[in-house]
Fold this sequence. Notes:
This protein has a domain at 196-263. The protein is built from 11 helices and 8 strands. The longest helix has 12 residues, at 80-91. 36% of the residues lie in helices and 9% in strands. The N and C termini lie far apart (90 Å).
Amino acid sequence: MEEERRWEDMDTDCLVNIFRRLGLEDLTLAVPSVCRSWYRASLDPTCWRVLKFRGLDFMPWSNLSKEFSNRYGLPGRFSFSGFLKFCVARTHGEAIEVELPLLFGATLNDLTYISLECPKLKKAVLPNLQTEDEPHLPEIIGRWHELEQLEMECKPSSFQELVDQLRQNCTKLVSLKLYGSFKNDDVSAIVSKLPKIKSLCLSKSYLPKDKLLEILTGCKCLHELIVKDCIGFEADEEVSKRVSLSGIKIFEHEGSKLVDEFGYETDECDPFYVQVI
């Protein structure tokens, strides 16, 4: 009887095709431990083109932190920055997607490192930065000339400058997702400087009805608009008519309302500081 073929004898291209579908925890801990051929295959940059850090547990007592430190003989305490640099180094500049965690979030130095070492990014999912670091975001994001999708936790204070960078350097951008307070200048910047945007998600934002209508009218290429759980508008007859005329295929607005549960129409008054006399 013909001897059964062993896993470690599989063709390297087949192994790479399998490994590129795995998450970072498997790539760093499980796969390299099996055999030398699997370890060699896991070093192929193709396996590291998608770097999804979100969803991993980076707490010092987590299995990932402890096992990674033990396997690679890390001196001192495990750090997210160290793990990030380890993974980015494996990409050899070929990464096309990065998704950073919310907690244990990336620092300004981490984002700068990624922007320099991963110039071919097509999708970036970024956490909040410290307020004092936000002015650096436009320069960082502007380095990704191939960027098509950008997701951020909230609208940064440097939003106007960010949109300028997207217009000048990220000409392939078609999808933008973030939340915050969108007023006259913000919406005007999206409409005038990102005319080719196809997918826009502003859920959980402050978005007045007139600004929503401006987006519907001004963004000619838009085919998906997600504005769920917003404050500032209701999807009335006028909005529905404008959506119909715009040609948008996907319009999600569930949970959006004109005022919040405290009765405020804008974001200018914090209900927690209102005294009832």
